[in-house]
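To close the section, here is one more complete example, presented without commentary so you can practise reading it yourself. The ligand is flavin-adenine dinucleotide.
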Amino acid sequence: MKKELFKEFDGYDRIVEEREYSRKYGLDYSAHKDLADPYIQRLHPKRLNLQVSEIINETPSAKTLRLVSPERVLPPFLAGQYIALFLEIAGIRTSRPYSISSPPNQAGYYDLTVRRVEEGLVSNFLLDEVKRGDLLQSSGPEGNFYYNPLFHDKTMVCLAGGSGITPFMSMVREVVECGLDREIYLFYGNRNLKEAIFHRLLFDLSERFPNVHYTPVIEDPLEGNQCLVGLIGGGLIKNTLGELEGKTFYLCGPQAMYDFCIPELERLGIPGRKIRKEVYGPPIDITRAPNWPGEIKADNRIRVKMNDGRTLEARSGETLAVALERQEIRVPTLCRSGECSQCRVKVTSGRVFQPAGALVRKSDRRFGYVHSCVSYPLEDLEIIL
Ligand SMILES: Cc1cc2nc3c(=O)[nH]c(=O)nc-3n(C[C@H](O)[C@H](O)[C@H](O)COP(=O)(O)OP(=O)(O)OC[C@H]3O[C@@H](n4cnc5c(N)ncnc54)[C@H](O)[C@@H]3O)c2cc1C
Ligand code: FES
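Output:
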C-alpha cells in the first residue's frame, strides 16, 4: 500500500529511470554531493535573522510581532508551522516556539502573535521589552501541524483555545486569500470575549466566505448574549457539523482543553487517526499530571551531576532543560514539548518523570535518553549532555 502511494509522487518514474541508468553505466554523483547545500540552507535554515517591523495590539494580553528578514529572504512554510525564537533574557539563554499566524502566501514577513503568561519569562519579555526595529534570532519553520492533502479531509474542524488560535489563523487566511477548495469549521474557546484574539477578523471572514464557519465559545456566563457560553463539547460540535464523516479534527491550545475535548470527540466516534493535536509546551503544573508520584513535591531539591563533573540544583517541578538553562548550560531546543528530539540528554543514574505523550523513540528509551524539555527530576541524577 505504502509502495503504491509512493509511485503517485511527481517525478517518481524519472528517479527510478535515473537510478537504473546510473547503475548500468556506473555513474558516480559524489562530486556533485554538495551542490544542493545552498538550496537546502535557503529552504531549511537552522538559524534566521529577523527584524521587528511592526507591533500590533490584538487584545489587552496579546500582540502580534511582524518579523521581516534583513537579508530579504524568508523560507517558505506550511500554515500551522512554528518558529522557535532564541533569546537571552536576564542572562538566561533560552528558546520558545511560536506558531506563525500570517499565511504562507504572504512571503514578506512572519507574524507571531504572543499572549502573556503570568510570570512567564519569554512572553513578558516579548510583550514588554521588544520594540520596532529590534533584531531577533529564530529557527527555520518547524512542526507537523498542517494540512496534508494526501492524508487529510478537505473539511477541517479546528478546535482552538486561547493563544492556540495562531496556527488556525494562518490556515484560515491561506484558504480565503488563495481561494482554496477547503472548508473550515473553527470553534474558539476563551474565558471572555475581550481575550479572544482575532475575534473580529474571524467573525468578518466567516460572514464573507461561505467555506469559513466560526463559533466563539466563552466561559464567562455574563457574556452569554454575545456568543455561546461553556466549553467546546461533543453536543455543540455535533449540532454545528451534522455529519461527522469525511472531516479531520485539529486541536491547538492548553492541556486542559485536550483533556476535555479529546474524550468528547472519542464519544462522538471520531477515530484517533482523524484527530490531530498540536504540541503546546510542557504541562502548566506537572504535579497534577496523571501518574505523577504523589509523595514528590514540586519544590523538592535535586542534585544533577553532569559528565564534565559540574553539578547543579534542580527542582522536581521544573524540567531538566529549564534547570540547565538557569545554570547557563544550553541544551538545543525547538518544540519544548517532547516532539522534535533536539534536547535529548542521557540519564545514567536516577529517575525522571516524563508525562504521557512525551514521544521518546524506543531505542532512546532503551539507552536511557530522555527529552530534557519534558523530563522532571524525581531524585538525584547523573546525566550525559
Ligand atoms: C508549537 C508551539 C506553538 C506555540 N505558539 C504560540 C503562539 O502562537 N502564541 C503564544 O502566545 N504562545 C505559543 N506557544 C507557547 C509559547 O511557546 C510559550 O510556552 C509561552 O509564551 C510561555 O512562555 P513563557 O516563557 O512566557 O513562560 P514560562 O516562563 O515558560 O512559564 C512560566 C509559568 O507559566 C506556565 N505556562 C507556560 N505556558 C503557559 C501557557 N501557555 N498558559 C498558562 N501557563 C503557562 C509554566 O508552567 C510556568 O509555570 C506555543 C507553544 C508551542 C509548543
Ligand atoms: S525541544 Fe523538542 S523534544 Fe525537547
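Once you have examined the C-alpha cells, check your reading against these statements. The chain has three domains: 44-138, 155-277, 286-384. Residues 155-277 form a domain with the Rossmann fold fold (CATH 3.40.50.80).
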